[in-house]
Amino acid sequence: MAIGTEKLFDEATKSLERIQRFDVQTLPRTAELGSQLSFSEAVQPSRQLVELFSRLTSRALEDFPDPALQQVRDSANNVYNLFEQILKFDATQANPRDARQSLLSSMQQTYPGTFQALHPYIAYSLHRSADFQQLDAMARATLQAVQDRADAFDGQMKEREAEADRVLNEIRKVAAEEGVSQQALHFKSEAESHDIRAEEWRKRTVMLAWLLGGLCGREFIPA
Hints:
This protein is mostly helical. The protein has a domain at 6-130. It has seven helices and no strands. The protein has helices at residues 6-20, 30-37, 43-54, 58-61, 66-87, 96-130, 132-219. It starts with 5 loop residues before the first helix and ends with a helix.
């Protein structure tokens, strides 16, 4: 809800937005006026003026009383009037070079006075737009969200570390059991090999004993 009168608020808003939308690249008119009468020098100071007005917001105007609204409206209209004079400049008029230089000088000299008139309102507008309490709340919410994500990530890392330790212990256990099994098979194989060899030696010993027994028996039989 506007503080000032509705009519003045509407006029100030329209004048402000008209300046904010103005394309300064339309000012040079080099193709029409030629390089000698071109207004290319007006681009930079006009851009500074447009950027100055762009720091005011229509929302901030809602809080302005009539004198402030009138100041914004008149300042915007004064600058736009300069733009229009450049856009309507006629190269066939008397003394076009002097007229051109006069407009350029006016453009150069307009910024200081406009800044002086508007800077209190711009400061208020920037403060209102910033809404520091809201920014602080958003910053706190963002910080908390980051902290929550960090805590969740830390918890996941601890769970994965515990799972990794469990898997590693399982691998070690299986490796140990596999080693024992392999060694047991090796010992069993060696034991069976020794048993086979022992049996062979036993049989050979028995056969040798029978052979020796047979030879000895023949020696004791009478001729």
